[in-house]
Write a structure and sequence with these properties.
The chain is an alpha/beta fold and 284 residues long. The protein has 11 helices and 12 strands. The termini are far apart. 40% of the residues are buried.
């Protein structure tokens, strides 16, 4: 697993995504706003936290406002990665009223979804208590993987593979088609990739086969607690272990005591509830 430094996202990773999201919402125009708000009317709005949350995606929300009003001024009171309480003003936005209203939903969609991912990630990380590294997965919204994985970093999690070209992982379907773990591992070694090899194991027999093949990381998937303990015992000094499958907040504290190095949690990116954030606007 590679630790990606926690730093602001390169705007090139989201600028076009924001443009397409605005175009999707705008269509032929914001009929209501155009009909009731004057072109020269100015406004000021605040992004307000309405539940405890970890902020993620503030620059992306700001981009939505500024694409429609390049002169808009965004004042950040919080930053990505901050844990905030209900009633906290995350940021203020000042500019022409009509573009602020038109961009509101797109800005909130990004900020709420990414903050939701960061918030649930922080809960898993806190529950793990530093005893195991919490990883994300490739179970991310299509076309938004870079943003989702950034949100995980905001929450204190660690990124697993960014894509299929970012690591070697032999999963259950690979094994079925190659007929054996050993055969799949040999083929990868023959391919000459200078990367660690990870193998998914769903039984202790597969654990033994993977260890005999000399894998670097063993993913133990959907095993009982007793089998996980035994798999970790057998792997000690031979391979690092990643726990996967059925990982919930209720179980993470117990899983963290087993001695594995990693636990991967698909839910932090595919099932995170949106954070409760509103945009409150008034005349400037």
């Amino acid at each position: 697993m590679k630790t990606v430094p926690f730093e602001p996202l390169d705007p090139a990773l989201y600028r076009e995504t924001v443009r397409r999201a605005l175009a999707e919402d705008l269509g032929w125009g914001d009929l209501t706003t155009d009909g009731v708000i004057g072109e020269e009317q100015r406004a000021r709005g605040v992004l307000l936290a309405k539940s405890p949350l970890v902020v993620a995606g503030l620059d992306i929300a700001a981009e939505a406002f500024m694409q429609l009003d390049p002169g808009a001024k965004v004042t950040r009171h919080m930053k990505d990665g901050d844990l905030v309480q209900p009633g906290t003003i995350i940021a203020e936005v000042a500019g022409y009223a009509a573009p602020l209203l038109t961009a509101e939903r797109t800005a909130l969609n990004f900020l709420q979804q990414l903050s939701g991912m960061a918030t649930i990630t922080r809960r898993f990380v806190d529950a793990a208590g530093g005893r195991i590294t919490v990883l994300d997965t490739r179970k991310t919204p299509p076309t938004l993987r870079a943003l989702a994985k950034y949100a995980v970093r905001c929450g204190g999690g660690t990124n697993h593979r960014a894509g299929l070209d970012d690591g070697l992982m032999i999963k259950d379907n690979h094994i079925r088609l190659c007929e054996s773990i050993r055969g799949a591992v040999l083929k990868l070694r023959e391919a000459g990739h200078d990367m660690a090899i990870e193998v998914e194991a769903q039984s202790l027999a597969q654990v033994d086969e993977a260890l005999a093949a000399g894998v670097d990381v063993l993913m133990i998937d959907n095993m009982s607690l007793d089998d996980m303990r035994e798999a970790i015992r057998r792997s000690r000094g031979r391979a690092k272990v990643e726990i996967s499958g059925g990982v919930t907040l209720d179980r993470i504290a117990d899983l963290a005591t087993l001695g594995a190095e990693y636990v991967s949690v698909g839910a932090i990116t595919h099932s995170a509830p949106a954070a409760d954030i509103s945009f409150e606007i008034e005349r400037a």
